[in-house]
Automatic annotation (TrEMBL):
Ca(2+) 2 binds at T192, D243, T246, D251. This is Peroxidase. It comes from Nelumbo nucifera. GO terms for biological process: hydrogen peroxide catabolic process; response to oxidative stress. Residues 23-324 form the Plant heme peroxidase family profile domain. The record marks R60 as: Transition state stabilizer. Substrate binds at P161. Belongs to the peroxidase family. Classical plant (class III) peroxidase subfamily. Ca(2+) 1 binds at D65, V68, G70, D72, S74, E86. It comes from the Eukaryota. It is found in: Secreted. Removal of H(2)O(2), oxidation of toxic reductants, biosynthesis and degradation of lignin, suberization, auxin catabolism, response to environmental stresses such as wounding, pathogen attack and oxidative stress. One of its GO terms (cellular component) is plant-type cell wall. The keyword Ligase does not apply.
């Protein structure tokens, strides 16, 4: 791995020494799947050639995984008789995407090192690689997560932040995972790439919080642009860039946009417009100093990726969409089919 990886590993070890309950380690697959990093990167690079949005979609999957029962691949499970998928939770349904690319990464990994790499780790690695390939920072991803055998749709509906939520609610949804205000601001910087559907900000354009007028914090010329993309009774699924200046590049422009009232979602603009001086200082710093943004972003991504699985029934899934068949159901199956 690269030399920057070594430096971050050293930082990681220091932070482990200071305080951590984490058993994750960037070298977790060094002997069992030494090529894991290249294999994941190969599939994502390929996908990017036809879908410039895919990196953004993949980091979002990691975020939505970690905020529900910890980083345990639970978002990847399909519905079954006993599983109510997180995929169909409100924040994810017809919105979260990239599942097919995760499946394709998983098949490549099963070819190279069967039964070794967890789906939760695939999401964490895919997030880092996506950021790096979009021009953002790279870091050593702590690895060794296990996959859940359950999903939690209620958890996805309750824990994931919504685009119209106020700063107080956003802060508390992050602090529920011990993520600080600084983490909230830095991680929101992931909205420097990717898209949003009109449904997630249309009230800001016509009738903000039922006031009958547009969101007063929205930049006037940006308001006009957005009204053309999202007409009042138009198709709510139409997409627009979260960062209109450099839509597919991972850079500091998300924060520069906030300074000129060009945050797309209410949850974005509130970081700058809610008169919270701690947050405004961070936005100004990240906007003027991309290095500072990248450094804090790495730390916050590692913190988020360290949210431990809450369940105790864990495994390394062979197919990210479904739990492994356990030995008891296997023998039941044999019994039934031979009778
Ligand atoms: C702070 C609270 C957050 C809220 C309220 C929020 C909300 C949203 C919404 C509503 C969308 C558009 C979804 C759609 O229209 O289908 C979106 C997209 C996205 N979010 Fe967030 N998000 C938040 C934090 C984060 C974090 C922490 C990350 C990652 C570290 C992230 C990464 C992304 C990315 C990359 C996209 C674009 C995905 C794509 O194009 O497929 N978001 N977010
Ligand atoms: C998810 O979206 C699909 C397609 O729009 C819809 O049929 C389904 O009812 C939605 N699921 C839930 C739980 O709302
Ligand atoms: C994953 O599961 C294995 C086997 O049960 C266990 O030894 C390991 O500590 C677990 N890893 C984490 C990060 O919890
Ligand atoms: C699902 O997530 C909610 C958090 O909203 C939590 O209270 C609940 O215990 C979780 N359920 C399971 C079965 O993990
Ligand atoms: C933020 O939203 C919550 C939930 O809707 C609400 O109870 C609270 O009063 C709001 N806080 C502010 C400062 O607007
Ligand atoms: C947050 O920190 C507290 C105190 O250190 C700890 O008890 C709790 O398990 C942590 N929560 C998460 C989700 O890491
Ligand atoms: C704005 O929304 C509120 C409540 O949702 C509604 O009562 C009002 O009629 C709407 N105003 C306009 C101008 O559409
Ligand atoms: C709405 O827009 C989406 C995204 O561009 C498109 O896939 C869909 O076909 C459109 N629906 C209608 C009814 O035009
Ligand atoms: C609106 O955006 C333009 C272009 O970025 C900028 O020059 C102007 O200062 C912004 N207006 C406000 C009120 O932020
Ligand atoms: C923030 O401060 C400005 C200027 O004092 C004021 O106009 C605005 O209403 C305040 N915004 C909020 C959300 O309190
Ligand atoms: C930008 O941030 C980096 C990292 O925190 C710091 O070393 C550097 O001095 C800052 N640059 C300026 C011009 O403030």
């Amino acid at each position: 791995m690269s030399s920057s990886c070594f430096i971050i590993t050293a930082l990681f070890l220091v932070s482990m020494f200071m305080k951590s309950n984490s058993q994750l380690d960037p070298r977790f697959y060094d002997s069992t799947c030494p090529n894991v990093f290249n294999i994941v990167q190969q599939v994502i690079s390929q996908a990017l050639q036809t879908d410039p949005r895919i990196g953004a979609s993949l980091i979002r999957l990691h975020f939505h995984d970690c905020f529900v029962n910890g980083c345990d691949g639970s978002i990847l499970l399909d519905n079954t008789d006993t599983i109510q998928s997180e995929k169909e939770a409100l924040p994810n349904n017809n919105s979260a995407r990239g599942y097919d690319v995760v499946d394709s990464i998983k098949s490549s990994l099963e070819n190279a090192c069967p039964g070794v790499v967890s789906c939760a780790d695939i999401l964490a690695l895919a997030a880092e690689i996506s950021v790096k390939l979009a021009g953002g920072p790279s870091w050593c991803v702590p690895l060794g997560r296990n996959d859940s055998r359950t999903a939690n749709r209620t958890g996805a509906n309750n824990n994931l932040p919504g685009p119209s939520e106020n700063l107080t609610t956003l802060k508390s949804k992050f602090s529920a995972f011990n993520l600080s205000t600084t983490d909230l601001v830095a991680l929101s910087g992931a909205h420097t790439f990717g898209r949003s559907q009109c449904r997630n900000f249309i009230d800001r354009l016509y009738n903000f919080s039922g006031t009958g007028i547009p969101d007063p914090t929205l930049n006037q010329s940006y308001l006009e642009t957005l009204r053309q993309i999202c007409p009042q009774n138009g198709n709510q699924s139409v997409l627009t860039n979260l960062d209109p200046t450099t839509p597919d590049v991972f850079d500091r422009n998300y924060f520069s946009n906030l300074q000129v009232n060009r945050g797309l979602l209410q949850s974005d603009q509130e970081l700058f417009s809610s008169n919270d001086t701690e947050i405004i200082d961070l936005v100004n710093k990240f906007s003027s100093n991309q290095t500072a943004f990248f450094e804090i972003f790495i730390q916050s991504m590692i913190k988020m990726g360290n949210i431990p699985a809450t369940g105790s029934d864990l495994e390394i899934r062979l197919d990210c969409k479904k739990v492994n068949r356990d030995s008891s159901s296997e023998s039941n199956y044999v019994l039934v089919s031979s009778s």
